[in-house]
Amino acid sequence: MITNQVLLLLMLSILWPSTALPFTPGNIGNLFGMPDSDGRVLQRSKRGWMWNQFFLLEEYAGNDHQYVGKLHSNMDRGAGNVKYVLTGEGAGSLFLIDEKSGDIHATKRLDREEKAMYTLVAKVLDRNTNTELEPDTEFNIKIHDINDNEPKFAKEIYFASVPEMSEVGTSVVTVTADDADDQTYGNSAKLVYSILQGQPYFSVDSENGTIKTALPGMDREVKENYQVVIQAKDMAGQMGGLSGTTTVSITLSDVNDSPPRFANHSFRVTAVESTEIGGAIGRIKADDPDVGHNAEMEYSIVGGHDIFNIITDQTTQEGVIIIKNALDYESKRDYEFRVEVRNTYLDARFIHGLQFKDYATVKVTVEDVDEPPVFTRNPYIIEVHEDTAAGSFVGVVSARDPDADNKPVKYSIDRHTDLERLFNIDSVNGTITTLKALDREMSKWHNISVVATEIHNPRETTRVPVFIKVLDVNDNAPEFAMSYDTFVCENVKAAQLIQTISAVDTDEPLVGHKFVFSISATNPNFTIVDREDNTANILTRRGGFSRREMSMYFLPVVISDNDYPIQSSTSTLIVRVCACDSRGNMQTCNPEVLPFSDGLTTGALVAILLCVIILLMIVVLFAALRRQRKKEPLIISKEDVRDNVVSYNDEGGGEEDTQAFDIGTLRNPEVMDANKLRRDIIPEMLFPFRRTSPIKDNTDVRYFINGRLQENDLDPTAPPYDSLATYAYEGSGSLAESLSSLESAATEGDHDYDYLSNWGTPFKKLAEMYIAKSPDRET
């Protein structure tokens, strides 16, 4: 047993010179530079001075540097002048060399699973000159494997399935483990599989790990899931080997080995007679322990049935009983039939000796309900002639209560289907009559709905469509089929065809239409020929028509039908007289213009009249533009106003304005009337509100102003508009005395203006101005 030391096993390959001694176990020490048993030191050639391979055990558990081997050169005489150098994989990190002795040590534990071999190069140098004493030699250090890795499975748990009822030895799944140890050396990686849990149901192949069934007749309906534990052990399963385990979850998959069975072989179902066709009245179910498509079932009625049918609900695997034809409690109240259930999919391995179907009896009881009335027909088609008087008979509808009580029924018309209220119905006997006369040309069919309602249960109602066809009566006269554009040439000859006419009639007689055309026999210009096919030709009775004499003829045509009573109408055909070429092609149909006695034609008169109207419009427009022309005001800015300035925004109307200024007076001042006042417009005052002066006896100021005003009014040199005139006369007798500073010898600072505030509102502004300038107040 090797512990805590490095085992040097073999030297596999050494290159010896031709003169070297043979290699024997007795001189192994000489390979390390040691004398042999005879006291001789082995001599080597320069190319083979060391071994080329060492072996080490992995995972050595030492703490210090572990000894690997020793290098020695013949040039090393023990004088200390030789230096050993190691290069290559792991040199200096994993492997260190004593440069004096050549001993190689490993610095840490080595793992073969990480790296199995290291390649290094050994050098021998002169310590003083650093020159090579021997050629470089390459050698390998191989790590020898030990059993230090247990087997490992790829998954901790595997999932697998096998059909139930499988034979013994049926393969389920194969699970394998991996061992990181050396596969080529020893039994460290040789695995053996065994089952630890899952017997006696399953077994495992010891060599490849294949799990197989070991018990016959395993039934999924009894037990579905199994847990199997598999062990993998190295060292060929011997004692001391390492092992690993995994779990395999095995599920038995279903096969169709169980037939469907009814838990109860008799079912009772109740259905109301009002159930609609296709409606479900009940469900039955059989049990099948299988799952998936193996449990899918199909239901059917043995021998079929006239009233009922059964279908399979694919989601719940239930049999759904439905109505195939209407139920009637009064006719039959009880039914009985047999239902069969079977699997949809069968497995041939299990059908022997088993019946994969089952039977059950179903009894159906019909319950009575209060049913709505039932009409004897659906729908009704009734014919009636048009133009029948209001209240005329149309037809009869009939309904009855299908219940055994046969309750009375009343009738009504759904007015949503008879918005014009053309019909009425007797609520007791269902007789339909007209409320208004019917016109087939307006509507050929009338579709109404009649409602039948139980008198004692108004919720039970039934409606039926009634189609009323209006039959035709010959009450419309025929007329032209279209509007005709007929003309006759001036140069036409007698008996020449000018138009073919036809007629239409909105009536529809049973034998078809037959129209007769005629005109007055005394018509001197045209005649008509009936073609017996509901058309007629218009011919000229004479030739030589003239537009100048008459440009248009009105031809009355009488059209009659052959139905009873005969209807006729007169349509007027307008025939224009046109100028045509020699081939009869129309050129123009305008009447010729006759010349007047003075030689002017109508066109010339129209042109002259238009010219006169245009000239009048130009004159009126010019006069309107002159009236709208405005003058620029002399004073533009409203701020250029002093004292009580009265401004006028209106200007004179020119020479035609007699209510403004007298233009003659302005031009001839020598003939001016001294007593004539100005006739200005009423001005718009800037200051419309003025308080009356508290002093009424200011006659001197009034005379002064009136005199100046008269002078300006009579002054021929004054401008013809209002102007501002300033006067220095202040009057006399004022309670405030003189406000002028011209006659005052005192300075402005000698006056006390506080008394101005006692003069009232008219002097408020003046008081504010002078009191504000008082020296005492300024200080």
Automatic annotation (TrEMBL):
It comes from the Eukaryota. This is Uncharacterized protein.
